[in-house]
Amino acid sequence: MKKIILIGKSGNGKTSLSQRLNQQDLIYKKTQAMEFQKFILDTPGEYIENRRFYNALITGSVDCDVIGLLQAANESDHIFPPGFGNLFNKPIIGIITKTDLVATSVEVEQHLQQAGVERIFKVSALTEEGLKELKDYLEIKG
Ligand SMILES: Nc1nc2c(ncn2[C@@H]2O[C@H](COP(=O)(O)OP(=O)(O)OP(=O)(O)O)[C@@H](O)[C@H]2O)c(=O)[nH]1
Ligand SMILES: [Mg+2]
Questions:
Q1: Pocket of ligand 1 (CB under 6 A)
Q2: Does the pLDDT value for residue 141 go beyond 90?
Q3: Total structural domains within the chain
């Protein structure tokens, strides 16, 4: 199993995705601090929204194998600076969440690519669409 850190704006579905990947029920709880749930390091959205937390993300990622940059399909902000992923010396994937709400747009994909992702997964924690591909990539069984 690969360990992944989930980074993205507040409310874009990091904790919900983490719950799904851990086969837990979806229970809303705002993330207040970085926390490992088995092989997933869930981070508060505030950490990417505020530059002074970048170091905390970098430090947290040391124990991870993969960096996951998340953007919701219906999110138009460009939260990741270009080349943001290069701060981490690890494989970076993009995860577009909430695909049940709107179709994923070229703009969202381009934004993630500019941040440095090498591959993009499209998922919905609600309908579980796309989760299998992500689980296969992370080598999660079941
Ligand atoms: N429609 C839909 N809603 C989702 C999906 N994933 C999460 N949500 C909803 O989005 C809201 C925020 O989800 P969270 O998973 O808590 O978001 P987060 O990224 O962990 O937020 P922070 O902890 O504040 O950074 C909740 O109301 C979820 O139910 C999804 O795939 N589809
Ligand atoms: Mg959260």
A1: 8, 10-16, 28, 30-31, 44-45, 97-98, 100-101, 124-126
A2: no
A3: 1
